[in-house]
Amino acid sequence: MERRSAPGGWRLLVVKITISTALLWLILRRFEFQDLKSQILQTDPQALLLPFAIVLASNLLGGLQWSWLVRTAGVLVALGRLIGLYFTGLFFNHFGVGNLGGDVYKIYSLGRSEGAFGRVAGATIVDRVVGAAALCSLALVAACVALARGEMPLPLVLVILVFSGLVTSFAGLVLHGAWGEGIEGWLAGLRWEAVTSRLSRLVGYLREYRERTAVLNTTFVLSLLIQSARVLAHYFVAVAMGWTMHPSDLAKFFLVIPILGLVIALPISIGGWGVREWAGVMLFAPLGRDGEESVTLLALTASLTFVVSLGGGIFFLVAGWPRRSRPEPT
Hints:
mainly alpha; disordered N terminus; globular
């Protein structure tokens, strides 16, 4: 049977490309090119080796975590292939919707070849949901510290507290046994079937993990390490750029970077471009950093991430497009 694209799918793609382009244009037109160039030229290339190593280590640990979740679900694939797929997903994240394009690739590729779309989707969604909860937990702790010290603008701290609390609560609900089942049934019963049926199916993919408390707890601890490393990478990029930093300034990065990571994952842009820069300028401004500094910091960190992900691009070229090797279970 011929597969047709979803109605209006190409229109949504055009809208997301337009959003990314428009936001980038609005941000860059505010700054002089020479100012951005000077920010880059004053960066110490050798000092970027440390954040590069941190990005590489965090993604290797992220690949091991996703691979473990996949194998826990019963998809017994060689670890080397799973790590390769994870890094290919990182590569596609730069060109997909939000920064979720790589997740779609991993689910399609491994699910198609192993006949296990549901199990791979479940592992990937758990990886994302627990990662989001870990990000917001870091932001919650940083916000509480900021409130106690009174060093940060109160409106920013309160917004981050509320946002992080909502995301963490949602993650806890969908991964809770009874509550997760209830949310799945509630979504299935809503009238807007075109959307709610898909959401219900996605929540249903988590069913296999809801009773595995040890797996979820271990994943959460690993996610805290992974997300903390990614915050540290941004901090050390700022050091390489010559920012005057105090060790206590690290708490500010734990306040801002987790929220930024969640914002760029929203499916409203291509690869998070435009949204990343716009949100970064807004979030760093209350911390006393101007737009040129914020944009350069985020661009350099994204570039390091892209370089790390090039191994996934090479893996994709070598492995080729996935073919179905096993029948899907009926």
